[in-house]
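Box 3.1. Reading complex inputs
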Amino acid sequence: MPALCRDCLTQFQAGPRCPACRSPRVLAHPELTQLSIAHMDCDAFYASVEKRDNPALRDHPLIVGGGTRGVVSTCCYLARIKGVRSAMPMFQALKLCPEAVVVKPRMPAYAEASRAIRSMMESLTPAIEPLSLDEAFLDLTGTARLHGAAPAVMLAKLTKDMETELGLTGSVGLSHNKFLAKIASDLDKPRGFSVVGREETAAFLRPKPVRILWGVGTATQAALDRAGIRTIADLLRWDKTDLIARFGQMGERLFSLAQGQDHRRVNRDEKLKSISKETTFFEDTSDPDLLDGHIWRLSEQVADRAKARQLSGRTVTLKLKRGDFQLLTRRQSLSDPTQLTDRIYRAAADLLGQSADKGPYRLIGVGISDLVGDDQADVSGDLLDPQATKRAAAERAADAIREKFGKDAIIKGRALKS
Amino acid sequence: MKLSIERATLLKALAQAQSVVERRNTIPILANVLIEADGAQVSFRATDLDIEVVDRAPAMVERAGATTVSAVMLHEIVRKLPDGALVSLIEDAASGRLTIMAGRSTFSLATLPREDFPVMASSEYSSNFSAKANVLRRLFDKAKFAISTEETRYYLNGVYMHVSTGEDGPVLRCVATDGHRLARIDAPLPEGAQGMPGVIVPRKTVGELRKLLDDDDATIAVSVSETKVRFATPAIQLTSKVIDGTFPDYTRVIPTGNTRRLEVDATEFAKAVDRVATVSSERSRAVKLSLDEDRLVLSVNAPDSGAAEEELAVAYGDERLEIGFNAKYLLEIASQVDRENAVFLFNSSGDPTLMREGNDMSAVYVVMPMRV
């Protein structure tokens, strides 16, 4: 059986230790050299970046998240031992782990680290599908000749380089399709490397719960449960036509996935569907002035991203979460797509003004969707608002100033409202 | 209640009622039509709480009374009955059913009590006048394409009907706009309409009103108050709430200083716009107009799908001009022109453009250009 040392990258025939460096981190699998679809997921990414940048935090449980009212966005493995999990409300996390150090997310630092990882990946293959800042699918099919090494070797090198050069660890899943690669990367975290081969696919999947299947959320899980389907083995007992009859399109997908089949390609430019930003308040509020200031700032952030990506949206969405966690979303279609803060803000502020609900709210979000290129954006003025054209020109001018002198060189007074 | 009525008469009366009824609604009685029989007449009343239509028709009433049944179902039944049939409607209060008999067909429909039917509160109309059907038809038909569907600007979701001053004195004026194009249509002010409050007639009402206006010579009685508007013929009475909002000051939107004049055959122009726009797959297709001495070149350039160009002989004597428009908007305003040439008045490629028919100022359209 071919084997690979994950520390010195020596390849050999399987044994408990690497014959070259005696390391026990040996990866052995009959199909090791044949598989080429991978999923790479950084371990506790935000927390790892924080610990790397501030070594004093290294031995403390660390939670990255916003304020006492926010939620945990990432926590390190020390905190996970105590039961802290991502997306857990902060007060609950601190109850479980009172000694944890809480730091606010520093998105620019994470984006920077993510870019560095991305450029390492790009030296492996151009077929990269990023899912978020810290995880991506990679398709290394046909790269063995170029690199002079099997995909498994290059992936082991990638995580090794990430550790030595960036001080960040990641876990890799290697298989013959995206769905299995994604499951595999989660098997052996942190610093993991798991392989699911074609031969073992069926046996590997059979005992797993249906919830691991891509697209099965709580609702589908409940529906499957009612049909007596809990594991993939249960699912395999069903006929394809019966599954389709009972679950529609989802049934067909469940059937293929349960067989370990997934024909999705690693898609380089997974099309962005929407751009949105949201913020949670320190205290629930229904103060229109305060909300207005937030809507402006969020609109500005959304517009900035749209401009950077040369995109524009035809629909503006306002998201409000009430104090009792009830979520309200209101959307408005525009007659032509926009990427301007001014238009996003006006649409979102209108939506707030017309919302019958008067709060108080704990969260507010602004987004655009129905995205198209910016060549179609803001092409026609508004007859009833002749000033709109001037405001658009002013915004473009301000953008040029910010480009040259920095983000805070010029801001709207409205952005200071809080 | 027991009555007999000729099928064609009944069908016509029900057609209007069933179109007012909302297909999806949560209040069961709103799906029903209220049938009231008295004397030699039967009336059919339907409402969606914003619009109410009452249609009266002659009938042989054996027993006066009133009940309500599903408007859509009754209409469907009557529609499928053979032409020339005599239809009997018999209410059986005990079973709560309405029996419909025609020839050898018998139907029985569930009823709801008439007391539950919401009748629109009558109100005082401050202004009453009458107008010819063809005059109202022109006013609303030519304006309605510009009505906005944007719900946040709800005050644009209708036609603003009001009294104003045109070229030759006071006019009854209809204006609609969605912020990209605007239509302003005038008709000589009917007698008695002076002092009428301006009202925004909702889109749905405009659609329903249209059905009253097919007969050129019919006279329509119009009543207006601050909150309601009513259009009535001897047989049909359409009452509607008006949009509670302020229509924006449209006068400043209509350009007065545009001097670059293009005159073109509207039909040829529309056909050419339609042809060149074919190559663009974008939702808002931009057409570029390049104007030079008596020459108009229409072009579309869609980098992803292709390009098209067409030249038209026109009357234009000003400086060169390039200006872009949404193809759909151009087509819609060009199709309003039916007698003379279309006259476009431009300023610059960024300013609103005015369009009218020949020199007729009683119907003007404004359209906002697009950056191309």
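In summary: The interface with chain A takes residues 150-152, 177-182, 248, 250, 252-253, 282-284, 286, 303, 324, 326, 350, 352, 366, 368-372 of chain B (CB under 8 Å).
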